[in-house]
């Protein structure tokens, strides 16, 4: 007879629970993410967490991959909804449009932190951004593209670091000014 009190194993649910907890804990400081902190937050055992992620680096890789997959979906959707415009303008619209979305901010904080702390993730970010945003060439259009990317990154960092307190209205004015360049 089956033990009715035995917890059902749902590996994908547990894995997602671990990733969500790590993202929530790590949104303010990635160094606070420990298997014990995740166990405390989720109610899972440390052994259960280790079953899914051998170490913090494996967890970080999965979280970065998941975050980039989400970001890719968002950017593609922004490109479509804006008439399939160039990547840098879609990226800028996305950054401005999502700045008050708490899920987006948490996702972007994780991406920002891992990109800042690890060269491997900087390369991953660079490859991703070249693929989905572009990199700008030496033409006038390429320089405009580069300016939009740098402004978007500046707004992203400003929002995630909580500096400058740029209003939504001012962000829209920045966007309009850059479009009119």
UniProtKB/TrEMBL annotation:
PROSITE patterns with a match to the protein in the record: HTH_TETR_2
GO molecular function, one term: DNA-binding transcription factor activity
Cross-referenced Pfam families: TetR_C_28, TetR_N
DNA-binding region positions on the chain: 34-53
Domain HTH tetR-type residue range list: 11-71
Lineage of the species this protein comes from: Bacteria, Pseudomonadati, Bacteroidota, Sphingobacteriia, Sphingobacteriales
Ranges in coiled-coil conformation: none
UniProt KW keywords: DNA-binding, Transcription, Transcription regulation
Protein name (database record): TetR family transcriptional regulator
